[in-house]
Write a structure and sequence with these properties.
By secondary structure, the chain is an alpha/beta fold. The chain has one domain: HUPs (Rossmann fold). It has six helices and twelve strands. The strands form three sheets. The chain has a seven-stranded parallel beta sheet with strand order 7-11-6-1-4-5-12, with helices on both faces. The termini are far apart. The relative contact order is 0.18.
């Protein structure tokens, strides 16, 4: 089975993000970059599917600056076979532009399945995977928690409104990974050493205009100081008054 996994380089989820001097981007100084956590889940599931099928390839694809090769090498150390990086110093643009770049990269690769994390942990738009599916004219199921493949059909599950939805999808298809689909492995020393010798193709970004423009970024306002009220009758009265007169929620 041949599986392509599209991954994104994002700031560590525990990083303290600051707005850069230009007011339109984040300050990268001191930030630790990682593979998006949901993308790690997708990589792990791709490896499991390849191994269960008794053969095939797992190819990881990303678009970003040259430094993104570090995250791709992590995927190769986990067990992926090869990687493709479309180099773009500042990224491809918004979700639509990114989807076009990734779709073009995927078209030339063998792929029974194309996997994504359900969303990156920076933009959180959960849009690129379904957009790539539309551009490739392939069926798509988002937020999957289980994948079983038999021949040219994948049976997938996803949680929806407190229930579990079961769908059958003809391959090739595009799926996005939800938490619970797989537990990402930690690369061992052998995998890390092997990753250095695996192919990582880099190619420049072709001109892909973005339909949107970031004009400004700002951090949300800081939280107000916490007020502690005694668990007494008078404290309850004070709380109700504050909710009604200060917050306007009653």
């Amino acid at each position: 089975m041949d599986v392509v996994v599209c991954v994104k380089r994002v700031p560590d989820t525990e990083a303290k993000v600051r707005v850069a001097a230009d007011g339109r981007s984040i300050d990268a100084a001191g930030i630790q970059w990682i593979m998006a956590p949901y993308d790690e889940i997708a990589v792990e599931k791709a490896l499991q599917l390849r191994d269960a099928a008794g053969g095939g390839t797992v190819t990881v694809v990303s678009v970003g600056p040259a430094e993104t090769s570090k995250e791709l090498r992590t995927a190769l150390a986990m067990g992926a076979d090869k990687a493709v990086l479309v180099t773009a110093p500042t990224g491809a643009g918004d979700a639509s532009a990114t989807a076009k770049v990734l779709a073009d990269a995927v078209r030339g690769l063998p792929a029974d399945l194309v996997l994504f994390g359900k969303q990156a942990t920076d933009d959180d738009d959960a849009a690129v995977g379904p957009m790539v599916a539309a551009l490739l004219d392939r069926p798509c199921v988002a937020f999957v928690t289980s994948i079983e493949v038999a021949g040219k059909v994948a049976t997938v599950k996803r949680e929806i409104d407190g229930e579990v939805e079961v769908l059958e999808v003809d391959l090739p298809a595009v799926l996005t990974a939800q938490k619970g689909l797989a537990e990402p492995r930690l690369p061992g020393l052998k995998g890390i050493m092997a990753a250095k010798k695996k192919p990582l193709e880099e190619k420049p970004l072709a001109a892909t205009p973005s339909p949107t423009e970031t004009r400004s970024l700002s951090l949300p306002p800081g939280r107000a100081a916490c007020r502690r009220l005694e668990p007494t009758r008078e404290g309850v009265r004070t709380l109700l008054k504050a909710l009604r007169e200060e917050r306007g929620v009653l």
